Write a sequence for this structure.
């Protein structure tokens, strides 16, 4: 424990964010790190509790508490306070595959479990984590670590989101030869094509992929493993295959949209925005919101990211329709929390874009089926040329499961407490097994599946298994 009285002396101070009215004019990251002396104070707020609930990731009565990766939080908070960056990094990397991702986008269930938070404000665990890893990249302490020897076993990971990357990283460290096969043009899954640049810069994703490549992981993009011939070849060539294809099957909007242009799902819209703004591509699947009246249906990260993206593209108006009542979203003080996107909408339009207890009842179309407006369940007609469905996901894609002969319900069926599927040497992890979730859970899944695959390949493992 760095400072026994730190939690009494120092108040919680989060990383700063760029002002909403400024940041909405570009796609740059909105986090601003604290100066070094203030960061150390934040590390010093940790009480090093006898039972550190923050690191004891567990599910109780259906709710997750603490870090699913079991990050050794009090240990590195202590090192943050004492300024021992090297030791902080080594303790962080013991359990965490990609702190630069979780340090930016994790909703921090660790902070929800922090004892400091019972009578005051929890420790800024996530910001402390981000400061450790970013300092290490800045000082060039994050160098490629190649395994000293190879096992001779070959593993194929299908899908390069956080689950696939974590599994590949762990198995490569154990000396297996790992190839990651990805359908998209660039690796990263939703880190690359879902979560927008202002929350998670694409340069940060590329930096990690480059490091993993230097460490010996091979990335092959533009390959669709749902093609039967591809699946057959992968099964023949590799000693084990881990399917980490996500759960991207969108939940239907429940409206007849046949022949209507101007309706798309949130992930399709966000992917197109990344392709335009970060990859410089104009021909994309979904339209830009520039100059349009946009209606977004749904809540959660995807809906917020769509609001923030539409504002940056220069929409004429943006409205978010939420099915459940406002009261369901109030915090313990009775206030309605503002996500980063809602702060930005307020700064640009002077209004919170959310309307509660309301849904779309009917679409209004103009010539050639172009969307012109939506009629809500309140019988309001809103002008709308772009309707974005951010209504969640119904499960994983069927085609890739069929190609490998893997059984699925909404997600891939695995044996209880295991990542093995019904097909010999085929495993599954991440959203594809767990259902729509969070980056930190996808990483925990990938690490756990890697431990199981390692044991399957060589009969034992010394890899940690955060789940199961
Ligand atoms: C818009 C949005 C914002 C989000 N924001 C957050 C957030 O702020 N914080 C948070 O913790 N979580 C967030 N999430 C959730 C988080 O991104 C996911 O839980 C996580 O990415 C799941 O990881 P995964 O590796 O299982 O799958 P994914 O990230 O979905 O990756 C799956 C990969 O498999 C590839 N693939 C699929 N089929 C094939 C095939 N047939 N052949 C080859 N490759 C294939 C895909 O192209 C993709 O690259 C967000 C999700 C969305 C949609
Ligand atoms: S990964 Fe998430 S839950 Fe774990 S320490 Fe970091 S912010 Fe907290």
């Amino acid at each position: 424990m760095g400072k026994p009285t730190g939690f009494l002396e120092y108040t919680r101070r989060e990383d700063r964010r760029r002002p909403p009215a400024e940041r909405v004019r570009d796609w740059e990251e909105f986090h601003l790190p604290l100066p070094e002396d203030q960061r150390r104070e934040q590390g010093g707020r940790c009480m090093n509790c006898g039972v550190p609930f923050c690191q004891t990731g567990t599910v109780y009565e259906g709710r997750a508490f603490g870090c699913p990766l079991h990050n050794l939080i009090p240990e590195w908070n202590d090192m943050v306070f004492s300024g021992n960056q090297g030791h902080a990094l080594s303790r962080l990397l013991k359990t965490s595959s990609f702190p630069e991702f979780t340090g930016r986008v994790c909703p921090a269930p660790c902070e929800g479990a922090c004892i400091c938070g019972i009578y005051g404000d929890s420790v800024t665990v996530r910001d402390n984590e981000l400061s450790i890893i970013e300092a290490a990249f800045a000082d060039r302490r994050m160098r490629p670590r190649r395994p000293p020897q190879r096992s001779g076993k070959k593993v194929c990971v299908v899908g390069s989101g956080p689950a696939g990357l974590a599994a590949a990283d762990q198995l490569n460290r154990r000396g297996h030869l790992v190839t990651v096969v990805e359908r998209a043009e660039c690796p990263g899954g939703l880190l690359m094509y879902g979560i927008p640049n202002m929350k998670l810069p694409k340069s940060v994703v590329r930096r990690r992929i480059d490091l993993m490549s230097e460490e010996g992981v091979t990335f092959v993009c533009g390959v669709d493993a749902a093609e039967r011939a591809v699946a057959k070849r992968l099964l023949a060539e590799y000693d084990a295959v881990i399917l980490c294809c996500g759960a991207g099957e969108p939940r239907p909007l429940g409206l007849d949209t046949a022949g209507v242009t101007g309706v798309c799902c949130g992930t399709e819209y966000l992917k197109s925005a990344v392709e335009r703004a970060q990859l410089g591509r104009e021909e994309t699947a979904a339209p830009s919101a520039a100059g349009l009246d946009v209606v977004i249906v749904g809540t959660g990260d995807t809906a917020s990211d769509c609001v923030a993206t539409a504002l940056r593209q220069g929409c004429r108006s943006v409205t978010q329709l939420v099915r459940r009542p406002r009261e369901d979203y109030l915090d313990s003080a009775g206030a309605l929390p503002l996500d980063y996107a809602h702060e930005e909408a307020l700064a640009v339009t002077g209004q919170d874009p959310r309307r509660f207890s309301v849904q779309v009842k009917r679409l209004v179309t103009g010539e050639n089926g172009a969307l012109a407006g939506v009629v809500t369940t309140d019988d309001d007609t809103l002008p709308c040329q772009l309707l974005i469905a951010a209504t969640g996901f119904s499960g994983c894609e069927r085609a890739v499961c069929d190609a490998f002969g893997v059984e699925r319900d909404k997600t891939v069926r695995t044996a209880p407490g295991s990542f093995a599927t019904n097909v010999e040497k085929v495993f599954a992890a991440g959203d594809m097994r767990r259902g729509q979730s969070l980056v930190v859970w996808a990483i925990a899944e990938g690490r756990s599946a890697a431990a199981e695959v390692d044991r399957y390949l060589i009969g034992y493992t010394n890899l940690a298994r955060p789940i199961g």
Remarks:
- The first strand starts at residue 16 and ends at 17.
- The CA atoms of residues 425 and 456 lie 8 Å apart.
- Residues 439-458 form the longest helix (20 residues).
